[in-house]
Each structure stands twice: as structure tokens, then as C-alpha cells.
Amino acid sequence: MSYFKDFIIIDDDAINNVLCRKIIEKTYPQADIADFIDPNEGFQYIATKYANSTGPEKVILLLDISMPLMTAWDFLELFNKLSPTIKDKVKVYILSSSVDKADMMRAQNDSNVEYYLIKPLTKESIRLIVHVLGRRLGMAVDR
Questions:
Q1: Of the candidates 13, 22, 67, 4, which has an alpha carbon nearest to the alpha carbon of residue 40?
Q2: Checking DSSP bridges between strand 6-10 and strand 32-36, what pairing results, if any?
Q3: 0.90 exceeded by pTM
Q4: Is the pLDDT of residue 113 over 80?
């Protein structure tokens, strides 16, 4: 699990952020978790914290779609302009209550999005994310 020690949650719903944090903490007690209700603050955090980051560790970002200050699509447009180092470090997962096929297709067609998850986040879904991403990246990952 040390390969995925950082998690970021960006969702304007503070209750969802608390629930996601609790699920991640129970599943991966050693995880470092940052959460933001303002996507602009979350973006600045990522752009600053991971600008000069070295090492193989990856960051898992759980990103909501519908936020009043900035949608996930706006966020991803900005994210795409970041350095390749940051984009390689941060693995984006859409976490949304939307079951709209258009949203799912848009996420699938975005090269920065790893996968589209339907809320709520569960222990099983966070374990699956870590396991599948770790295998895809050729890393041994504890369950």
C-alpha cells in the first residue's frame, strides 16, 4: 500500500468528503488524505505539492463532477495543462452520483481519467482502485 499513500478528495459536498475520508482511513490507516470543497483550492494544492515531487508513489484523486465553482470537466481542462510529472503522479477517478451515460462517456474519453465510480465510495471500491492501478503500473499492492 505504500505506493499509494496519498489520496485527494475534491467534492463540494462536505459530508461526502467526510464519508470518503472515513472509508479510506478504515481501509488504509497509513494513508495521507487531503479533501477540498473548493475545486480551485484542490487544484492549487495539487499544482503546488506535486510540482517537484520525486519518487514512484502515486496519488489517487477522487473528483466529483457537479460542483458550483468548477465542474470536473473544467478541472480536467486545467489539469491537462499541468506538467507531465504532475499528471503522471496524480491518478484521477471520477466519483459522482451521476449515472448519465454522457458523463460516463466523457470521462472514458478523457486521457487523464482512470475510471468512473458511482457514489458512495466503499471499502471494496477503494481496494479495487488501489489493486487494479497497482497491477497496471506493475507494482505489488497489499489488499
A1: 67
A2: parallel
A3: yes
A4: yes
